[in-house]
Amino acid sequence: MLNLDFHPSGRHFLQIPGPSPVPDRILRAMSLPTIDHRGPEFGALGLELLGKIKRVFKTENPVIIYPASGTGAWEAALSNTLSPGDRVLMFETGHFATLWQKMARRLGLEPEFIGLPGDEGWRHGVQADMIEARLREDRDHGIKAVCVVHNETSTGVTSDIAAVRRAIDAAGHPALLLVDTISGLASADYRHDEWGVDVTVSGSQKGLMLPPGISFNAVSDKAIEASRHNAMPKSFWAWDEILEANRNGYWPYTPSTNLLYGLNEALDMLLEEGMEQVFARHQRWAAGVRTAVEAWGLEVQCQDPAVYSPVLTGVVMPEGVDADAIRRIIYQRFDLSLGTGLGKAQGKMFRIGHLGDCNDLTLIATLGGCEAGMKLAGVELKGSGVAAALEYFAEHPLKGDA
Ligand SMILES: *Cc1c(COP(=O)(O)O)cnc(C)c1O
């Protein structure tokens, strides 16, 4: 049994960078009765949401939806486009880029993992010039795909995907461009078609504000063409049968009916607000949170202001302070969940999620929990981050704020 007694009163603060809090409006939509996934109502729902989701990916092409976590959609992207033994160029931005690279290896691909030296890679975004230089050397076009993470959730760094596209084109290289925006979609600006992405991978539990459980592949014509000839065995992940059934709003197997109710509602919420306003809201929260970190006298993990993540902020602890011990205090005392340091960053930082169904006050409370927790643990802070963020939010109203 889940120990609900632990949460004595009020709401749990789920401030990890995914899953993000699920709005009541989405929970209500998901609570409707499960219907026949081959019946007429379902087909109408399927067509409606398959149409609307394209607007969030900014694509005219189909978006494939899987009943799987984001990891499944990673595998789908690789197994639909590549063949065993293919070389793929991947860029080390953090833990998630590393995991995708491990998956490529397990699938029989030959990933070449490049990045900045030492710990620098985990504090900066993808370096498009390094990709261009590597592709220029690859004169026989042995590299079949370039794989990058748009919003690196382990560090709080967002990469410039348009620059990666330009790098591939400048090198005159035919490699496919595969992008993971599992945590970027619907929080950070993303343009599948305009940026010339061949497969975009995303998931439900981050910017889309849904519970975990569904994930996505947006595709280009070139990617679909590759899927007709590639030699990687694929069945569950194969696009062809899904695209065929999707024409009429159905799936070849039982889809996650209630999560799709939630997705339809989430798409309405996002499109009613307008994607530009959604992005502005996230940028503003991120800036407020960074103002707090600066006031504490601490460092953010991202070292390049041009690519600060609007989705989450990695807060680096002073030398000798165990970030996970602080997270535990904050969880136990304030019922507030923060993201742990992943992989190489374990124990060195915690991550504050500021995505989806938040508002200024949930973030002020979150910063309050961080500030109080660090003080309890004896971390010396230069000043009050909470006060600094309050001031930032007051001085930077969002369009439409009174
Ligand atoms: C969350 C996340 C994943 C993994 O998704 P799951 O739903 O946990 O399988 C992969 N990449 C990035 C960038 C993520 O944020």
Description:
This protein has two domains: 4-21 and 275-395, Alpha-Beta Complex (Aspartate Aminotransferase, domain 1), CATH 3.90.1150; 24-271, Type I PLP-dependent aspartate aminotransferase-like (Major domain) (Aspartate Aminotransferase, domain 2, 3-Layer(aba) Sandwich), CATH 3.40.640.10. The protein is built from 13 helices and 14 strands. It has helices at 24-30, 40-57, 70-81, 95-106, 128-137, 161-170, 221-229, 239-246, 257-273, 275-296, 323-334, 360-376, 385-395; strands spanning 13-15, 63-66, 87-91, 110-114, 143-149, 151-152, 157-158, 176-180, 199-203, 215-219, 299-300, 312-316, 336-338, 349-353. The protein has 402 residues and is α/β, with parallel strands linked by helices. The termini are far apart. Bound molecules: pyridoxal-5'-phosphate (PLP). The site of pyridoxal-5'-phosphate has 12 residues, from α3.
Summarize the structure.
The protein is an alpha/beta fold and 402 residues long.
In the sheet with the most strands, the strands line up as 2-10-9-8-5-3-4
Biggest pleated sheet:
7 strands, mixed
Share of helical residues: 40-55%
Q: Give the termini distance in whole angstroms.
A: 45 Å
Q: Count of DSSP E strands?
A: 14
Following the backbone from N to C, one meets helices and strands in this order, namely EHHEHEHEHEEEHEEEHHHHEEHEEHH
- What structural class is derived from the secondary structure elements? alpha/beta
CATH-defined topology of the largest domain: Aspartate Aminotransferase, domain 2
Instruction: Look at the structure and give the CATH class of the largest domain.
Output: Alpha Beta
Give the DSSP E fraction (strand runs of 2 or more residues).
5-15%
CATH architecture classification name of the largest domain: 3-Layer(aba) Sandwich
What ligands are attached or bound here?
Answer: pyridoxal-5'-phosphate
* Overall shape: globular
- On the 0 to 100 scale, the average pLDDT is 97
Radius of gyration equals 21 Å
As for the number of domains, it is: 2
